[in-house]
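Saturday, quiet lab. Running sequence design on the structure tokens for the scaffold JK sent over.
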């Protein structure tokens, strides 16, 4: 599984912890920045990762801003993206099981690194359950493609 990672300045410190974790666990990932605490706009960072996931260059993405809200809203504007803002392990698991989320969004000013790494680990290892949930995800995809 290839993972694209990015953050804005508000998520920079937590992104660095996530990158460390991904390295330690041997995940195939690419860090698209930001690479400092200098201010950057969250839509720019979100769209880099969302576009790469939508095009199939990466299977999943992880995005972090101050709250996770703005970066998830921006990512969800890209067709084919199902970005889930998760600030707890249960939501991370369910976003994969029921929603086939392909981007995880988190808030660097909302959760600490210990919890964030548990969320990342759960999200990455949880498969999509399919079945009745696939029918629901397919409805979203169909609408997104203008076939409602």
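Result came back. Writing it out in full:
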């Amino acid at each position: 599984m290839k993972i694209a990672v990015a953050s804005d300045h508000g998520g920079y410190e937590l992104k660095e912890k996530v990158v460390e974790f991904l390295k330690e666990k041997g995940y195939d990932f690419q860090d698209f920045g930001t690479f400092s605490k200098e201010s950057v706009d969250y839509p720019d960072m979100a769209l880099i990762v969302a576009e790469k996931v939508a095009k199939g260059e990466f299977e999943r993405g992880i995005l972090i801003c101050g709250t996770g809200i703005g970066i998830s809203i921006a990512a969800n504007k890209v067709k084919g993206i199902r970005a889930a803002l998760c600030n707890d392990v249960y939501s991370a698991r369910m976003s994969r099981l029921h929603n086939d989320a392909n981007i995880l969004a988190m808030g660097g000013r909302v959760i600490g690194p210990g919890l964030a790494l548990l969320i990342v680990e759960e999200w990455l290892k949880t498969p999509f359950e399919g079945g009745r949930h696939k029918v629901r995800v397919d409805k979203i995809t169909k609408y997104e493609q203008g076939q409602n």
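Notes for JK: The mean pLDDT is 96. The chain is about 45% helix and 15% strand. Ask whether to fix the surface positions before the next round.
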